[in-house]
Amino acid sequence: MSTTPAPEPRAPRPALVFDDPLDQQTSDDTDRGWGERPEGDSAADLKRFLDEKPPHHI
């Protein structure tokens, strides 16, 4: 008689994917990936200006 517990089943390993990565769209392929923001109001434009203003323009 053995008192060792039964081994737990291992989690399945992720499958290897051999697709061509250049066939997939990246965030750089979209306007959003280039920093485009959705249309907003003038308050949002002012906030963006103040957030992105270089420190020497304060």
Could you explain the architecture of this structure?
The protein is mainly alpha-helical and 58 residues long. Helices cover 19% and strands 0% of the residues. The protein contains one helix and no strands. The radius of gyration is 26 Å and the shape is elongated. The termini are far apart. The model has no long low-confidence stretch (mean pLDDT 78).
Q: Report the major sheet.
A: none
Helix and strand sequence:
H
SS class: mainly alpha
Unreliable stretches covering 5 or more consecutive residues: none
- The whole-number mean of residue pLDDT values reads 78
Q: Tell me the span between the first and last alpha carbons.
A: 79 Å
Tally of alpha and pi helices: 1
Q: Radius of gyration, rounded?
A: 26 Å
Fraction of residues in helix: 10-25%
The strand count comes to: 0
Percent strand equals under 5%
Overall shape: it is elongated
Short description:
It is built from 1 helix and no strands. With 58 residues, it is an all-alpha fold.
Question: Which tags fit this structure?
Answer:
single chain; 58 residues; mainly alpha; 1 helix
What's the layout of helices and strands?
Blueprint: H1 42-52
